[in-house]
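Troubleshooting entry. The earlier prediction with fe (ii) ion gave an output that would not parse, so I re-checked the input for stray whitespace and re-submitted. Clean input:
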Amino acid sequence: MIRIAAVGDIHMGPDTRGVLRPAFETLPECADLLLLAGDLTRHGTVEEARVVADEIRGLGVPVVAVLGNHDHHDDRPDEVTAVLRDAGAHVLEGEAAVVRAGDARVGVAGTKGFGGGFVGASAGEFGEPVMKEFVRLSRRCADGLRTSLERLEEEGCDVRVALTHYSPVPETLAGEPLEIYPFLGSYLLAEAIDTAGADLAVHGHAHAGTEHGMTTGGVKVRNVAQPVIGRAFHVYHLPVRERVSAGSGTEASTA
Ligand SMILES: [Fe+2]
Ligand SMILES: [Fe+2]
């Protein structure tokens, strides 16, 4: 079993320095890696990023992260990324990281993702330039996720995980106002996941959402926003087994 710890939306700042560290220090006993699903800061400042960095430095398990919309607010995503990388985290945007979990190789494909909504209620690439750019950004994020997952398949990873901030499915948004679903995720992310195949999809962003969902292709989706899971992290157990074909999701049981 691969043990994947995950949390998003920890929204740290100077006044929360150190609050997660005691729980994170237990990770080597209960998990093989830690996924951070974005919104690690409140306003994306370098000062806040340094608080997160101190929380995750030298944990003894690999840390793989994506940024969230809050981590972009100060218009310094590159600096925030650099601070987190300096603390040893893999920070992904349209990229993949492969980490070891015992004898197994775990591939994580990551993107922040973006909004646009879901089938039957989604934004289209039409009209004003800013509207077209909105949808194109969402599509670029999804394309990066798909190509990263495909690369992990070619590399023969034993387990593949899609890590995003925005949601790929509407099920894990249940509890949020329906009117804001288009700002919480995009069906394009789920299309990418189902096209390339994955064993688990993890996201955050929807603080009032629901933990469990699934893509139409059968890939289990988990909303790990901290207000949703109500703890420092949640650990998911994935069996290591041969994938039958791209697009088939394996069972993921929750701990
Ligand atoms: Fe958040
Ligand atoms: Fe967010």
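This one parsed fine. The helical segments are 21-24, 27-30, 46-56, 77-86, 129-154, 187-196, 226-229.
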